[in-house]
Write a structure and sequence with these properties.
Oligomer: single chain
Distance between the termini: 35 Å
Helix content: 55-70%
Mean pLDDT: 85
Number of strands: 4
Length: 672
C-alpha cells in the first residue's frame, strides 16, 4: 500500500493491512499510520464495486475481529483519525490536502471494518471493539489524554463536526461523502434486527448530548447538500488502470485528486435507481431520512432530527448553512432554522423519480406546515405534480411503497381547495409520457384524474389493495366539487371506471348466489362484494359532487352519463345506492328531455353536446338533493414506525451504493 496503488485482488496480501489486523499492538503515534494512510485504492463508487471490495477484504476483516480484542488496533486507528480530523479545519483553510487525504483514508478503513462488524455480530459485541484499551496502554508511545466519552460517541461527534465545519470543495467532496457513509454504516445496526423500534446505543449517541444539540445544523447541512445537487468536481477524472490515484507528485503538489469517477459524477449506475442523483446529494438524503424516522422502544423520546426537519422556515435571502463553529457546543440549539425554500422545492421537483425524494416530500408536506404552505402557493405547481403523476402512470414498474407515498402526497395536496381549483386552470399542451392516447390541451387537473383512475383500474386487476383504493378515491373526492371543464376523454374514463366496477359487481353477485359447490365459500365473496360496493358508492358520490357543484361547467361528463345511462338502472332499487342514484337519474332525465324537445333528435356528438350546453345554462341549481361535502384528510397510522423504518432502510439497502449482505438483513425482506 503506501503511496503506491493497490488493486482489490492485492488487498488481502498488503503488508500494511496485514500488520493493522495482526497480533501486535500498534501505538497511535507509530509512524506506521502515515505509511498506511498514504495509499491509493480502487475506491468503490457503486454497489457492484463495494461488493467486490468486501469479498477481497473479508479475510482481513476476519483477522481483525479475532485479534483486535488483544491488540486494540481498531481503537488506535480511530484515535489517529480523531487527531487528523481535529486539524482538518485549519488544513483546509490552508489548502493542505495531505490531512484531507489521510483523514479520508482513515475514515474509509474505519467504515469498512465497522460494516463487517455490524453484519456479523450484535451491537453489544460491536461496541466492545470500540472499548479495547488494555493492550493499547501497554503499547509504547500511545497518547494518554483519553476522552471521558465512549470512543464510538467521540467518533460520531467528530464526523458531525467534520460535516459542519469543513466546506464542500473539490478536494473535500469525497471526505464528506465518506463521513456520511460512515454514519449510515454505524446506524445500520437497525437493519440487522427484526424490530422496527429498536433501542440502539449508537442511535442514542446521535439522539442525545452534543450530537442532539447539533441536530438542527446537521439537518440543515444535509438538506443543503441535497438542494445544491453538487456533482462530483471536474478534477475527479478517470485514471489509468481504474483506481483512486492520489500520487504525492500530482495530488499533493497540485491539489488535484484524481479518481475513477465510475458513477460518482453522474450519480451512479442505473441498476441502483439513482442514475441522475449526484452521490453527495443521494447519501445526504438517505442519512436525513434515517435520522428523521428513527424511533426507539420509548415512543415518547424526542427525535431532534425529526423536530428540526418539521420546523425549519423559509428565508429567501439566506441559503448557505451556518458553520458548526458559529454556535456554542454547550448551548441548546432551537430546532427551527432557515433554508431557502425555492431551492429546496426545485431540487425536489427535479428528483421525484427517486423513492427517497418522494418520502422526503411526504414528510415535509405532512409535518412541516411552513413548507406545505409554500408549496401550495407555487404558481408552477405542475413542476411538482407532473413528475408524481408520471410515477403513478408507471405503476407496474414501481414498488408498492413508492406508489403509496406518491398517492398520499396527491391526497395531502387535494385537501387544499385552492390547489383543487388551480390544477384545472393550468393547461398542458401535451403529455408525452401518456402513451395510451395523445392528449392535447388537457388541464393538469384532468390529467390528475386520468392517472388516478388508471391507478385504481390497475389495482382492481393486479394489486387488489383496499388501502390504495381508499387513497385514490379520497383524493378524487376532495377535488370533485372543483372539477371544471373536464376534457372529453377524462369524462369518458370516469364513467368507464364506474362501468368496470358494475361488471365486477354483477360477477360477484353471481358467485355469491352460485349453487356450484366448487365455488369458494359465499362468505368470502360477500366480503369482497361489500368492499366493492363501498368503492362504487364512493365513485357515485364523486360524480354526484361534480354534478351538484359544477354541472354547467362539465358538459362532457353529462354527455358520458347520457351515453352510458343504462349502467345506473341496476342500482335504482339497491339500498346502498338508491339515494345517490336519484340525483344521477334527475340529470339524465332532464337532459334526455332536452334531446326529445329538439325537432330532430341530435345524433352527432357535437349536436348532442350543443344541446347539453344550452340545457346547462337553464339548469335549476336547486334541482338536486344536497349531500354532505366530500372531505377526506390523510391521517398517519398509530404506529407509523412499523412502516417507515423498514421502508427507509430498504431504500438505503437499494440506493446507497454500498453493498449489504442480504442474508444478514432482518428488518425487511431484501429484493432480489
Amino acid at each position: 500500500m503506501g503511496v503506491g496503488s493497490s488493486s482489490m485482488v492485492e488487498l488481502g496480501n498488503n503488508d500494511y493491512l496485514q500488520r493493522l489486523v495482526g497480533k501486535e499492538p500498534i501505538s497511535d503515534n507509530d509512524p506506521f499510520w502515515n505509511q498506511l494512510l498514504s495509499f491509493s485504492l480502487p475506491t468503490p463508487l457503486s454497489t457492484a464495486e463495494a461488493r467486490q471490495l468486501e469479498e477481497a477484504t473479508k479475510p482481513i476483516c476476519k483477522s481483525l475481529v479475532e485479534n483486535n480484542p488483544q491488540t486494540g488496533n481498531f481503537c488506535a486507528l480511530i484515535r489517529v483519525f480523531l487527531r487528523r480530523a481535529g486539524e482538518l479545519k485549519t488544513s483546509t483553510q490552508c489548502e493542505n490536502n495531505v490531512f484531507v487525504w489521510q483523514s479520508y483514508n482513515a475514515l474509509f478503513i474505519i467504515r469498512c471494518l465497522c460494516k463487517h462488524f455490524i453484519e456479523i455480530m450484535s451491537e453489544e459485541k460491536v461496541l466492545k471493539h470500540f472499548t479495547v484499551t488494555a493492550a493499547q496502554k501497554k503499547a509504547p508511545g500511545n497518547s494518554s489524554n483519553e476522552s471521558s466519552a465512549p470512543l464510538a460517541e467521540t467518533l460520531i461527534i467528530s464526523i458531525i463536526q467534520l460535516l459542519l465545519q469543513i466546506p464542500v470543495v473539490n478536494f473535500t467532496y469525497l471526505l464528506h461523502l465518506e463521513a456520511i457513509n460512515t454514519l449510515l454504516v454505524l446506524l445500520s445496526v437497525q437493519m440487522f434486527v427484526a424490530r422496527a423500534a429498536y433501542k440502539s446505543v449508537l442511535h442514542d449517541y446521535l439522539a442525545e448530548g452534543k450530537c442532539a444539540k447539533a441536530a438542527p445544523l446537521l439537518v440543515r447541512q444535509l438538506l443543503y447538500n441535497f438542494t445544491t445537487q453538487e456533482m462530483c468536481p471536474a478534477s475527479f477524472d478517470r485514471a489509468e488502470g481504474g483506481s483512486l490515484l492520489y500520487g504525492i507528485a500530482s495530488g499533493v503538489a497540485s491539489g488535484i485528486w484524481t479518481i475513477l469517477t465510475l458513477g460518482i459524477g453522474g450519480g451512479g449506475h442505473s441498476e441502483d435507481g439513482i442514475a441522475n442523483t449526484p452521490a453527495l446529494a443521494n447519501q445526504s438524503l438517505l442519512l436525513l431520512l434515517v435520522l428523521a424516522n428513527h424511533c426507539g422502544n420509548d415512543k415518547d423520546t424526542r427525535n431532534p432530527y425529526r423536530e428540526a426537519l418539521v420546523s425549519f422556515v423559509n428565508i429567501p435571502g439566506l441559503e448557505k448553512p451556518l458553520a458548526y463553529a458559529e454556535t456554542s457546543s454547550e448551548a441548546q440549539i432551537d430546532a427551527s432554522f432557515n433554508i431557502k425554500f425555492s431551492s429546496l422545492y426545485n431540487a425536489i421537483c427535479g428528483q421525484l423519480n427517486n423513492d427517497s425524494t418522494i418520502l422526503l416530500l411526504y414528510i415535509l408536506l405532512h409535518r412541516n406546515s411552513h413548507f406545505k404552505t409554500f408549496v401550495l402557493s407555487r404558481l408552477n405547481i405542475e413542476a411538482l405534480v407532473l413528475p408524481i403523476l408520471q410515477t403513478l402512470y408507471h405503476v407496474a414498474d414501481r414498488s408498492s411503497h413508492h406508489i403509496y407515498m406518491a398517492l398520499i402526497i396527491i391526497l395531502i395536496l387535494s385537501e387544499d381547495d385552492a390547489f383543487s381549483k388551480s390544477v384545472h386552470e393550468i393547461m398542458l399542451k401535451t403529455v408525452p409520457w401518456y402513451t395510451e392516447r395523445v392528449l392535447h390541451k388537457i388541464s393538469l387537473g384532468g390529467l390528475l384524474i386520468l392517472v388516478v383512475i388508471r391507478t385504481i383500474q390497475f389495482n382492481i386487476t393486479r394489486m387488489r389493495d383496499k388501502y390504495l383504493h381508499t387513497n385514490c378515491l379520497a383524493a378524487l373526492a376532495n377535488m370533485s366539487a372543483h372539477f371544471h371543464s373536464l376534457h372529453q376523454y377524462v369524462a369518458q374514463r370516469i364513467i368507464s371506471l364506474f362501468e368496470l366496477l358494475c361488471k365486477k359487481h354483477s360477477k360477484f353477485l353471481e358467485l355469491v348466489t352460485s349453487p356450484d359447490p366448487t365455488v369458494k365459500h359465499a362468505q368470502d365473496y360477500t366480503q369482497d362484494l361489500a368492499i366493492l360496493e363501498e368503492v362504487i358508492r364512493m365513485v357515485l358520490e364523486i360524480i354526484n359532487s361534480c354534478l351538484t357543484s359544477s354541472l354547467q361547467h362539465n358538459p362532457h361528463l353529462v354527455y358520458a352519463l347520457l351515453h352510458k345511462r343504462h349502467l345506473f338502472e341496476q342500482f335504482r332499487t339497491h339500498h346502498t345506492f338508491q339515494d345517490i342514484i336519484q340525483n344521477v337519474d334527475t340529470v339524465i332525465t332532464y337532459f334526455n328531455s332536452k334531446m326529445e324537445q329538439c325537432p330532430v333528435r341530435p345524433s352527432e356528438p357535437h349536436e348532442v353536446l350543443e344541446v347539453i350546453e344550452q340545457g346547462a345554462r337553464q339548469w335549476p341549481r336547486d334541482r338536486l338533493k344536497k349531500f354532505p361535502e366530500l372531505r377526506f384528510k390523510y391521517v398517519e397510522e398509530e404506529q407509523p414506525e412499523e412502516f417507515f423504518i423498514p421502508y427507509v432502510w430498504s431504500l438505503v439497502f437499494q440506493k446507497s451504493r454500498l453493498h449489504w449482505d442480504p442474508n444478514s438483513v432482518q428488518l425487511f425482506v431484501p429484493e432480489a
